[in-house]
Amino acid sequence: MNEEFIIIDHSNLTDEYLDIIINLKKQHWNHPYDSQKKWIYDNLCPDDFHLLLKIDGVYAAYMSICNIDVTIDGNSFVAKGLGNVCVDLTFQKKGLGKRIVEKANEIITRDEDAGILLCHSHLVPFYQRCGWFDVQYKSAYIGDNKYDDIVMMYNLNVKYPIVKMTLNRSF
């Protein structure tokens, strides 16, 4: 199996790559093409990037990696936010989801950053197997909007209990 990772700066995203990304995402989030395109351009910033995994010449997995301003109990830092993690349905159950998250972990570690992601409870065991941990908090916000689901982090020592966590934007 020939594996290739492709990193694309959001500011350099071509229509060809946009089509590939939307076609992968549509398998998991059934929104019209124009809606997916609008979400990508409304929610990603020029310094964010896209990570694609190609297997034997076929685009098999995708995620976005965004620079997110995080404040935990008054301490602010920038973390890499993983979003839109998905694997082509024909490649599922072959370890490619784990593989693309591991690549993101390498990037986070190399850049001496922390990682953050938002997820549903059924995905927690998957991300834990990838080295991520769920964060316990009393309140969390994305911008001014209260967030009540699961926050997971990577490569960060967290002091508990977290009273308030704020992320500057959705990702």
Element layout with pairings:
Elements: E1 3-9, H1 15-26, H2 33-43, E2 49-55, E3 58-72, E4 75-87, H3 96-110, E5 114-119, H4 124-129, E6 133-134, E7 137-142, E8 145-147, E9 150-154, E10 162-167
Verbal overview:
This protein is 26% helix and 41% strand. With 171 residues, it is α+β, with helices and mostly antiparallel strands. The chain has a single domain (3-167), classed as Gcn5-related N-acetyltransferase (GNAT) (Aminopeptidase). Strands 1, 2, 3, 4, 5, 6, 7, 8, 9 and 10 form a ten-stranded mixed sheet that branches. The protein is globular.
Summary?
The chain is built from four helices and ten strands. The chain has 171 residues and is an alpha+beta fold.
Q: CATH top level?
A: Alpha Beta
Q: Provide a count of the helices.
A: 4
Question: How many E strands?
Answer: 10
Helix-strand category: alpha+beta
CATH topology: Aminopeptidase
Query: Judging from the principal axes of the Cα atoms, what is the shape?
Result: globular
Mean pLDDT: 96
User: Residue ranges: pLDDT <50 for 5 or more in a row?
Assistant: none
The name of the CATH superfamily reads Gcn5-related N-acetyltransferase (GNAT)
- Share of helical residues: 25-40%
Q: What's the architecture, going by CATH?
A: 3-Layer(aba) Sandwich
- Over all CA atoms, what is the radius of gyration? 16 Å
In what range is the share of β-strand residues? 35-45%
